[in-house]
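Late entry, evening session. Most of the bench is empty. Finally got around to the prediction I had been postponing all week. Sequence below, unchanged from the version circulated by S.P.
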Amino acid sequence: MENEGENDFTEQKMAYKVKGITVTGTIDSYDMKHGIIFDYKTASVNKIKFKDFKDWYLQGMIYAWLLSKNKFPVNKCRFIALLKDFSRTEAIRDYQYPKEPVYVFEFPVTLQALFKIEMFINDKVNEYRRCFTLDDNAIPSCTPEERWERPPKFAVIKKGLKKAVRLFDEKNAAEQLAEGKGAGHYVEHRQGESIRCQSFCLCNRFCNFYHDKNKTISYEEKEEITEQAAA
């Protein structure tokens, strides 16, 4: 992929300062001749089935904005996803299922879209500057969307099977279905999960939300315990 196209540059870090804060991004590949950003992903089939591309769009537009600020024109963003859980059998059976193990998501980059993403970036920089002046405990938590939050669900389960018959947001609806299905069905409460907090955040050890959610001790408490043990 790195050698694809003589007019491309790959793994190039772009930077631009906004109100004294440096915004950066590392671009997988950029076709200088046609003004196309390429980004390569591994993804699950469900992301494609549910058309869950908001994060890719945001990433692509930030890259496009960074390139434009560095005098590189962008006409299009193209995400190439390698589907790690693709099943040829499911592709035949399910009309919503992607038909190939590689999926391409792309969109045009317009002046209006660049203007909107610049407003988004300015808002984020302002938020960062404001939070930088606050005490750690006063910094607001990330939004559920930023945390990649999966809300809690109520699953109707048939005894002997691992996969849920159906998932519900409300307990009453799940109980009604389980009762209607008859003996051998029951309701299981599945806790919500913040995927980014749990597995991808580099700052969770400093975060009150993370510690409250996971019932862990804070970074400051760990430091205090270590100092007491050393003494």
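Two things to note before I forget:
The chain has eight helices and ten strands.
Residues 145 and 198 are 14 Å apart (CA to CA).
Will write this up properly tomorrow.
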